[in-house]
Amino acid sequence: MSSQSPAERADELRRLIEHHNVRYHQLDEPEISDAEYDALVRELAALEETNPELQTPDSPTQQVGAVPSALFAPVQHRARMMSLDNATSFEELLAWGKRMERFISGDVDYVCELKIDGVAISLLYEDGRYVRAATRGDGSVGEDVTDNIATIAAIPERLAVADAPAVLEVRGEVYMPMPAFEALNRKQVETGERLFANPRNSAAGSLRQKDPKITAGRELSFWTYQIGELVGGPAFTRHRDTLQWLAEAGFPINPELRVLDTLDEVHAFCRHWEEHRHDLDYEIDGVVVKVDDLAQRGELGSTSKAPRWAIAYKFPPEERTTKLLAIDVSIGRTGQATPFARMEPVFVGGSTVGVATLHNEDQVRLKDVRPGDTVIVRKAGDVIPEVVGPVLSLRPDGTEPWRFPQACPVCGTELVRQEGASATFCMNVECPAQTRGRIEHFASRGAMDIEGLGERTVGLFVDEGLLRDPGDIYSLDFERVRQLEGFGDISVRKLQDAIEASKSRPLGNLLVGLSIPHLGFTSSIVLARALGHLDRIMTATADEIAEVEGIGPTIAQSVCEFFATEQNRAVIEKLRDARVNFEGPAAPTEPQTLAGMSVVVTGTLEGFSREGAEEAIVRRGGKSPGSVSKKTTAVVVGESPGAAKLTKAEELGVPVLDEAAFVRLLETGELPQ
């Protein structure tokens, strides 16, 4: 090798890798081990990194092993993927141990594993070869992500054991390591795209890509923690032995696993990792504690939602202090002006936080936070960033209370706050911020789902005068688009196809996209189903609309006022000319995990827009009303929740869920115990 130039060695490596690809993938007769193959790929990647001129589009380092396929096809799990009960204190851990005494006696060994903050995945191997991967889904049926998972280097394509079992189903967690997450966000900054909130959401979003090449570029990894099913394999008596065998088969096993004798030792292990969680290069949100003896597990069995032989010890929320640099105001698509804090970035609750909402004028006044303050930042449930308040002892001399601006920071129009209201609005409907917001919302996944028409592209098109309202999307001047930097023939064609496909979206999605005040996703679907055509909705009176079950007088009046406005009717005519579908919604295809349930969402969620959360509920058979009542199953609380809804939930004893519990509810239909 020493006598070879970098170019000669790169050519040799490409030939070797291509040869072994044919032997492995086409002939099923590999000549080298996976480790040796990986070493060749790593050496080539290192050469190309130090000599960028050697990298070619057809290099093995630039190719992805998976091909595009229809994503999210349903997968019936061979064995149900259950959730875990939680503990947050030593007392709850002891209570779990006492409950086990009703089913088993004698000594118990506990296996403690770090609870990886990622995405639960089921991997299926038949005769030693990887054949399928699925998300947990509702526990019984998951999403087919086989091709995307195949791009993760940590997951073996073939088991490294001599006598491979006929069937092996492995459970584990796909996650994004912190270095990969930080690199991804650096790339987002360079390209002007929004930052990803945390590694867990980034991993989940990376798996839910239509193109596996995107997943491959996200540097995901994987830890194995359980065998789901084993047919024709070795017999085991202890969980620790199954993990040892999985490691021998080629699966990555987290090295921090411990087998302990007492719950006191278990709690000490949990406390240790609570204090040292950020010493790792991946995110954890607790410790999973399992009974080691498999026979004892069989005696313990399961409840309807969780095994009795395991529990998740969850870490508490974290608080940190940082410097408040400025209080700015953003303008949303409805014109609402929302104050938010710009802070020195601080790592809290598992991710770096530099921005947090301050809700409204009253909240800023009540908290009395001021630019220059040292403020307490909290991420409740490791999810939601919140400015708790100032550290008054560190407040600089001479600061003044922050005052809400009188003019819109975007267009300069006077800001208005109606008497008795908490929100402040820019009343200029042609404000560029509102225009961008309405078009972005119209194209969003919960509305017309126009891929490629995201925040950055919409902003560019508005600035270039290509878009003035959502109706302009369907008469977009693509010749001018082609003249813009970054828009070649392929990207333009994809955008054209996405816009054309959006024309067939159901009426419910169109109503969502129109940004009608007070009309959320649930009420949009209800109204579309009741009246069946946009023209009937446009010509209906407020009284006629209010007669629709689930549509109150406030929504009805808002709908009538929206369609009575000349500007909005002009947009509708543009949509009509483009032959956008004006008829009712399609039937949902998701598992009906929330059938018969009523779930209220309040506040801002990190992984869902408000409409997206309501859509997720409705598509799974539930209802998402705007108020809390005795019939409410649960209230999902995000950032800046409505105080009235929270108070009502507490008065009625309605369960209150954070975003993580909401995701579990969508998947399983089960409330946390």
Account of the protein in words:
With 673 residues, the protein is an alpha+beta fold. It folds into 5 domains: 6-62, Helix hairpin bin (Helix Hairpins, Orthogonal Bundle), CATH 1.10.287.610; 74-314, D-amino Acid Aminotransferase, Chain A, domain 1; 318-422, Nucleic acid-binding proteins (OB fold (Dihydrolipoamide Acetyltransferase, E2P), Beta Barrel), CATH 2.40.50.140; 432-577, DNA polymerase, domain 1 (Orthogonal Bundle); 599-668, 3-Layer(aba) Sandwich (Rossmann fold), CATH 3.40.50. It contains 24 helices and 21 strands. Strand 20 (634-637), helix 23 and strand 21 form a beta-alpha-beta unit. The longest helix has 21 residues, at 6-26. The chain is globular. The model is unreliable at 24-29 and 64-70 (pLDDT under 50).
Topology:
Layout: H1 6-26, H2 34-50, E1 74-76, E2 85-87, H3 90-100, E3 110-116, E4 119-126, E5 129-135, E6 141-143, H4 146-149, E7 167-175, H5 178-191, H6 199-207, H7 212-216, E8 221-231, H8 239-248, E9 258-260, H9 263-276, E10 284-291, H10 294-300, E11 310-314, E12 318-331, E13 336-348, E14 351-357, H11 361-367, E15 374-380, E16 384-390, E17 415-416, E18 424-426, H12 432-443, H13 455-463, H14 478-482, H15 489-502, H16 507-513, H17 521-531, H18 534-539, H19 542-546, H20 553-564, H21 566-577, E19 599-602, H22 610-619, E20 634-637, H23 643-652, E21 656-657, H24 659-668
Parallel strand pairs: 2-11, 19-20, 20-21
Antiparallel strand pairs: 1-6, 3-9, 3-10, 4-5, 4-7, 7-8, 10-11, 12-13, 12-15, 13-14, 13-18, 15-16, 17-18
Helix pairs in contact: 1-2, 12-13, 16-17
